[in-house]
Design brief:
By secondary structure, the protein is mainly beta. A 16-stranded mixed beta sheet has the order 3-4-5-6-7-8-10-12-13-14-16-18-19-20-21-23, with no helix packed on it. A two-stranded antiparallel ribbon has the order 1-2. It is elongated and about 85 Å long. The structure holds 2-acetamido-2-deoxy-beta-D-glucopyranose (6 copies). The site of one 2-acetamido-2-deoxy-beta-D-glucopyranose has 4 residues, from loops. InterPro entries: Cys-rich_flank_reg_C, Leu-rich_rpt, Leu-rich_rpt_typical-subtyp, LRR_dom_sf, LRR_TM_domain-containing, LRRNT. Keywords: Leucine-rich repeat, Repeat, Signal.
Length: 407
Amino acid sequence: MASVGAVAVLVCGLVCVAVVAVSQSDCPRPCHCWKGTTQVYCNRLDLSSVPADLPTDAEVLDLRYNAITTVSRHDFAGLHSLRSVDLSLNQLKITGIQPGAFDDAASLRTLDLSQNKNFNVLPPNLPPQVTHLFFVSNKVVHITAKSLVNLTELVYINFSSNQVSIIDSDAFANQQKLEELHVESNNLTYIQPSALKPASALKTANFKNNHLTHVPLDLPVSLNNLDFTANQIRHLPSKVFSNLTDLQTLVLFQQPSLVTISDGAFLGLGKLQVLDLTSTGIDRITGSTFTGLGGVWKLFLSCTRVSSLPAGAFQETKNLTTLYLDGNLLTTLEPAVLDTRILPRLSNVVLSGNPWTCDCHLRWLKEHIDNNNTAPTVETPDIMTCEQPPSLKGRFWRTLTSDDFVC
Ligand SMILES: *[C@@H]1O[C@H](CO)[C@@H](O)[C@H](O)[C@H]1NC(C)=O
Ligand SMILES: *[C@@H]1O[C@H](CO)[C@@H](O)[C@H](O)[C@H]1NC(C)=O
Ligand SMILES: *[C@@H]1O[C@H](CO)[C@@H](O)[C@H](O)[C@H]1NC(C)=O
Ligand SMILES: *[C@@H]1O[C@H](CO)[C@@H](O)[C@H](O)[C@H]1NC(C)=O
Ligand SMILES: *[C@@H]1O[C@H](CO)[C@@H](O)[C@H](O)[C@H]1NC(C)=O
Ligand SMILES: *[C@@H]1O[C@H](CO)[C@@H](O)[C@H](O)[C@H]1NC(C)=O
């Protein structure tokens, strides 16, 4: 449907005559186009193949929600400006991407192949020029050495909601540019120690909602963000993160299986800023649990099974600003735990949802809240209650005076 939209005739003296045909394309029916024909929307049209005569200046092509089974060499021929193709929610066959299908699309950066129900492996002939690959809600079980072998430009991969249970040790051998890996909601129980190591630029690894029982060894030292939310990690041995010297955020949220943290588990994480241990099964904190975390300013330690804290619990996290201790089994708290001579930046602490024993040992805290409640500020003191002694059971701290905190 390409048409000659304008013809410019340049006459240069008597000798040279150049005819420049500026090809201007139409939007292929029944698609819709925006910004001229640079954005082409052909979604939800029951298409069984890629529309013919796509405009040659197309940059963004949306083919979602169709019934396309195959893309062949001529489908994207001449589409040199194409940057982004969305083929999610189609019925691409495993062999549906024919060799060279994207060869003309040298500018292609983003390819979305999510929700194609036949994809139980990565299809061959993926375009090597893509930097962003979406492969969400397919049925891939095994990421093999071949899966990504030609995708050397990948910066971002999203494999969320597949059934990945195996990542071969050389699966990422050619992903030296990869910065973000999302393998959320898969079936991982174990990752080969060297599987991710070749991804030497990896900044974000998202393993949320898998079945990992151990922290994988030999993760890339480039990592900034590591997320193990909702796995089944049981134990953090000493120095398990020791190579991750650039890590800034570590999330172990929703891990009731995680009961023991060896002293020195976090050694080496000198740049860590945020540590999330919410809803873990941790029942014991020592003065060396957080050794190595001198940069952490936000520590989530909510909803664990911790019932007491030693005076030096946070002596190693000297930069701590915000501390969540709500929803634990704490009955009492020594003033030294929150001492601003040890924690000069501590500004906010959350202590609600603990079964406090409201006696003389907590009188200092009641006075702190009532007198000034700064450095640190105890957040939401209005919902703090007493569990003991029996005479004060269920009472809100706000309804008491410090004189009620007696032994
Ligand atoms: C990788 O590229 C080579 C050379 O073009 C090709 O023979 C091979 O089939 C490709 N592998 C995959 C998995 O696409
Ligand atoms: C992965 O892709 C899905 C679907 O496009 C998206 O909803 C999700 O936010 C992506 N995840 C990340 C972490 O980028
Ligand atoms: C993945 O895990 C789900 C839920 O645990 C299970 O139903 C499914 O069979 C698993 N798939 C594979 C391929 O292991
Ligand atoms: C740290 O890196 C060394 C050298 O690559 C490796 O042998 C060791 O297993 C790594 N440690 C962890 C805990 O990953
Ligand atoms: C502590 O925080 C301050 C202010 O954000 C920062 O300049 C300093 O580098 C941090 N210290 C460590 C050990 O990370
Ligand atoms: C309340 O706290 C602020 C900030 O720490 C301090 O400057 C002020 O002196 C305190 N006031 C009292 C009455 O303790």
